[in-house]
Design brief:
By secondary structure, the chain is mostly beta strands. The chain contains 4 helices and 19 strands. The N terminus and C terminus are likely disordered.
Length: 376
């Protein structure tokens, strides 16, 4: 899978004492809306930046989003060269035309900000700091991971304008949503030297009660997804109305080539049809304290977007690039033994020389999937 190193592809480690994180019915903390008998709006949770998607194994029906803790990189065993990161949660409350999409209550959020992170609309948000997040929502949408095999010659989604190549809009859209555009870390790690047990994701990261010890915390947050369609929300270089145009391509760079160049995910999302309020509760990863519930009530027939990201505090792409430590995600976020191989030879996605040089390999969500030679 190619890299949602939302920050894909490219983003591992959170949950305290809560036994479940997404429920079929709304919690009691958010006020019910009378007369809501139909599923009247859509909820879209978007993840990007230093974030990792842990895919389910064959017998599981859930996924995890793990938000790496890089608040103070100088305290990390590896990743010391990356800039300090800030984790955040933002809710879009009005669209670009000023039309209200949602009302928020409960957990205090900042004042409305127009075009936060260059995105259209008005947003309210808060920072995340070592939090185990739980999503309570009344939804009929069952868990689905939108994923299918990418053949070795597939460089990017097909162009719907080229109908003579049997490509039409529905097929192109399904290809754009394919989670296979994130990096398949289990496959990647399996190709590196070392024992299989040295290439496993720490179990404490995804236990219902967060069990990873030590300081600093490995995660700034995590959330378990048990409902909804999990899909790629955006590929690098993909713009509205420009589907099918040539996209930047990336490959895994190491002492030897491991993959063929192809497009890469910039954002991963989960979508749900919703009735009534959405509740996002939070408890510290060590279970010591809980925060107020965040209650979100969407307006009928609207799409309410909630963005959870983990981004560097440096000012510009050029400024951020000089801090890049290419080993960070593949070691700190993903391995329980970072010394299983020479960290200078760990593979990370890099752009082909012919593509735009502005890509930061840290900022695309990676994906981890348990499996032979690289899983739990």
């Amino acid at each position: 899978m190619y890299r949602f190193t939302l920050r894909v592809l490219g983003f591992l480690f959170l949950m305290a004492t809560l036994p479940s994180y997404m429920h079929a019915s709304s919690g009691d903390s958010c006020p019910a809306v009378p007369g809501n008998k139909e599923y009247t709006y859509k909820l879209r949770l978007v993840f990007d930046g230093l974030v990792t998607l842990k895919e389910p194994s064959a017998n599981q029906k859930n996924a995890w989003i793990l938000i790496g803790n890089a608040s103070n990189p100088d305290q990390l065993q590896v990743g010391k060269k990356i800039p300090p990161h800030m984790s955040h949660l933002f809710v879009r409350v009005k669209d670009e035309n000023g039309v209200e999409e949602a009302q928020v209550s409960g957990r205090p959020l900042g004042p409305p900000v127009v075009s936060a992170f260059g995105l259209p609309g008005s947003w309210q948000g808060t920072s995340l700091d070592g939090e185990d997040l739980r999503l309570n929502v009344d939804t009929p949408t069952k868990f689905e991971l939108v994923k299918s095999r990418l053949w070795f010659w597939t460089k990017q989604p097909c162009n719907p304008k080229h109908w003579y190549f049997f490509c039409w809009e529905n097929r192109s859209r399904h290809q754009r949503e394919n989670v296979a555009w994130t990096v398949n870390l289990s496959d990647t790690l399996a190709k590196l030297p070392g024992n299989p047990h040295d290439k496993e994701l720490q179990e404490c990261l995804t236990q219902d009660t967060y069990g990873c010890k030590g300081s600093p915390l490995l995660l700034n947050g995590r959330i378990k997804l048990e409902k909804g369609r999990v899909l790629v929300n955006k590929l690098f270089g993909q713009g509205p109305g420009k589907e099918g145009e040539s996209l930047p391509r990336f490959l895994l760079a190491a002492d030897r080539a491991l993959t063929r160049p192809r497009a890469q995910a910039e954002e991963v999302a989960v979508e749900l049809d919703v009735r009534g309020p959405v509740e996002i509760s939070s408890r510290s990863l060590d279970g010591s304290q809980a925060k107020d519930h965040l209650c979100i009530q969407g307006n009928p027939a609207r799409t309410v977007e909630v963005r959870i990201g983990n981004h560097p505090n440096c000012g510009t792409v050029v400024e951020c690039q000089k801090f890049t430590d290419k080993d960070f995600l593949f070691v700190f976020n993903l391995l329980n033994n970072p010394l299983f191989t020479d960290i200078r030879k760990l593979p990370v996605p890099v752009q082909e020389p012919t593509t735009h040089p502005g890509f930061n390999s840290q900022c695309s969500p990676s994906s981890y999937q348990p499996g032979a030679g690289g899983g739990q």
